[in-house]
Amino acid sequence: MGAMFFLHHSSDGENGEGRKRRGSHMAHNSELMVDPRSGFCRSNSVFHSKRNPISLPQKEFIDVTTFISSRPHHGQTAFIDAASGHRLSFYEVWRAVDAVSSCLADMGIRKGHVILLLSPNSILFPIVCLSVMSLGAVITTTNPLNTAREIGKQIADSKPVLAFTIPSLVPKLAGSNLPIVLMGGEGNTPAPAGVVGSLEEMMTREPSGKRVGERVNQEDTATLLYSSGTTGASKGVVSSHRNLIAMVQTIVNRFSSEDGEQTFICTVPMFHIYGLAAFAMGMLASGSTVVVLSRFEMDEMLSSISKYRATCLPLVPPILVALVHSADKIKAKYDLSSLQSTLSGGAPLSKEVIEGFAEKYPSVKILQGYGLTESTGIGASTDSLEESRRYGTAGLLSPSMEAKIVDPGSGKALPVNQTGELWLRGPTIMKGYFSNPEATTSTLDSSGWLRTGDLCYIDDDGFIFIVDRLKELIKYKGYQVPPAELEALLLTHPEIADAAVIPFPDKEVGQYPMAYINRKAGSNLSESAVMDFIAKQVTLKLITQPPLSSTYLM
């Protein structure tokens, strides 16, 4: 069976707090036999993180803003606007947060009130979020590209009492009757109807020394971000201060560096958990500098790396692929010598992309991350190039995170190397969906397990591999066929440039898998050749799935 280690759960500290929150699923002072290689516990079929656990504050009453501001670091510059070069020092950030918090309190904003933030990326974005949360009020963000109707739907659901936005987006709030605070208003330009102030004016006010804030419990709600969830329409994800504090601790531990201060390029949207967690809060707590791009533009991103000597570039896989394909032109035009690492999220990277990037940018290591809005952006990660070279993996479980692989049909928890739905449990898992008990119950069980909706397996070394989305499975004669797995097989063919597999309805078998295929230039690949190729691949891999029923070649 191999070596085992004993996982001891003490009656105090972080584990004790986590156990109190999750209920009595684990007795005090219990010892569990855990395989040190995979992290799998045979006695309860739970996978445990192999990372060092995070520590959480023992104070019951502390908000995430206070927690971040109290962390020691040696950083000087907190945020830089990539376009203008305007900088905010850590002192200026925290003074602004204090001033804006005082103004909001004077306006009657109280604990539990929801505040809407409608804005593109900005160095002011974190100031609004941190100010709101310091009062125990709740921040809800929305995509500035959303239509007025989509934003109105979120407003009707979350019921905010105040909105922060930029002048050009004010029309999208028309009809909401929300009082508006403008961000980045132009000098003497008349304020639109409904505007009650400007963020810049709030930031210049003297903070009130007499203000007595309401006590904020770690379990109080801090953010209300909207997500499609594991299935269905967009829902409000309720995250607590404790969730955010645990997220911050995870990020700080992951990016703590002995090589001095780090400079990150923020290309991902701050209204999304990825941007909000990492850049509006996590990097601030670590003492790092964040260079903020208002929107993604390849030239501006590359110029900013050179101009501000950035050390880390978080991005999504398509941008990483573009960096590989255009590497020679990029390196001829831009100085990327300061770059030490890239952080990719959204989908696991293939061997070809990882090795292609390592070849073109040998001094830059690739890190990957996996998380959901429902898990406050935390779930799994690769923290070195060596770990990323476990091709196709989402990484090892994040610190203090537990996982189960559950058979979707029987509900049985599975051991290593068996595919099922990934369930996660830990201090970053959401409280639930806002005003939606049915969706909450279907996603969170009574013991705090989050059903991710991702079909995964965990290998002998504890690495998570995502096979497909549970709801995207093709149902063929009772078999569950993951389209992503068939797509991956198709892409190994030397004459196939791209492929997509979809379900095709059939009265007798339920659904057939059907592929749309884009041939590489000059290829005369036939439909029958594709069918034969897949049939051989499926047979060799002993997968109990049918071959493709048909293909559409382009």
From TrEMBL:
Q: Keywords of this protein's UniProt record, alphabetized?
A: Ligase, Membrane, Transmembrane, Transmembrane helix
AMP-binding enzyme C-terminal domain span: 485-538
Q: Name one Pfam family in it.
A: AMP-binding
AMP-dependent synthetase/ligase domain residues: 73-434
Which chain regions cross the lipid bilayer? 114-139, 271-293
**InterPro entries linked to this entry:** AMP-bd_C, AMP-bd_C_sf, AMP-binding_CS, AMP-dep_synth/lig_dom, ANL_N_sf
Q: What is the protein's given name?
A: 4-coumarate--CoA ligase
Question: What is the native source organism of this protein?
Answer: Vitis rotundifolia (Muscadine grape)
